[in-house]
């Protein structure tokens, strides 16, 4: 007699399936990520109908770029790559309470006002609660169709009848399919629900936005496999205690990844921030040691951020290295290069590094500004307040030119900065009225800035 199908154990981070529970996933190395799943019900054994095959040449008349519907919210449209692509599936992830529902209700209202038929389906809040929120955000006049439902079968039936251009599902963790034998929010439910919704989006030409809460490890719960299914993955992030929120494209089949949109959480919902540099630098303290302004590029636009460092004698055997907003591996590398190439040791010193305003910087071009902030803190010498810095530091201590030098300088100049420290051989076309100080390596930088 056939045995009933056994339960499987699936990693909520990478989706790998294991035969038994283990503390650590062999596939991705994650600890405590394995969750038990009920067996999937056996599907039909018969072969499906023949899939449709179309010669690519027959599609030649289609436009190369997908048509897009802009929402009118400039910051959102930029992150989407110009607007909403029909029949696409978008995942918006973020910490609970960061403002995802607020953002998507505003976005749905904005799309609805341009004439698109939009549905907002909440599995977390009652209709009255969503309505109250809409009233608070001043959106009651927007023709968004509201649904409060968690049974995916009912939702798909409604969507099929209504055929909106955009459907927001808030959130994917609350959705459940009666064919899957586990609780809502479990890996198998989330995966199955996401699969159904993405398939529906493609078949019926409805753009679907899935809202997903991330776990404390920073993964969209239930799990990365959802990221693989969708066309676009956006993260809505921000530091608690800061009102800034950043919508970041980490994957986009229809536009550039790494693009960001900047918002500010106000009492009236999310307000767009069209000039993020001015915002991030707005509450800069008086010139103090340990502060350096980095001229960065986020997606297609230059963004200036302040990098702050604090260096203090350590009482610990292993000194502290605390980093917010920058990869900690990058800090270790820069400290090692400073020590090995410039003979400036940080041993015995606690180092704290922070990007002001809750921004996260991932460009290697930030290296020089990080080194400058560290040196400035260590030597107790302030960097000139009208100076921006950028450049990648190689392990040899050489400074490497980075992309978009001109754009960085232009933005800095626009914000009133008048000098820039950057790698030699950077292609600057006159420097936009800036005093450009080109330096070949870190030793030259230390010599020029700190007279050592
Ligand atoms: P919400 O969109 O519910 O977050 P999520 O869907 O990501 O869980 O946002 C909740 C937070 O936003 C809550 O702490 C209150 C705050 N908020 C404002 O500050 N102003 C507003 O106008 C709204 C609607 C919410
Ligand atoms: Mg919510």
TrEMBL record:
List of residues binding ATP: 94-101
Record key words, sorted: ATP-binding, DNA damage, DNA repair, DNA-binding, Hydrolase, Metal-binding, Nucleotide-binding, Stress response, Zinc, Zinc-finger
Domain RecA family profile: 65-214
GO biological process: recombinational repair
Cross-referenced Pfam families: AAA_25, ChlI, Zn_ribbon_LapB
Domain of life: Bacteria
Keyword Metal-binding: yes
One Gene Ontology cellular component: cytosol
Family listed: Belongs to the RecA family. RadA subfamily.
This protein's name: DNA repair protein RadA
Source lineage: Bacteria, Pseudomonadati, Pseudomonadota, Alphaproteobacteria, Rhodobacterales
Gene field: radA
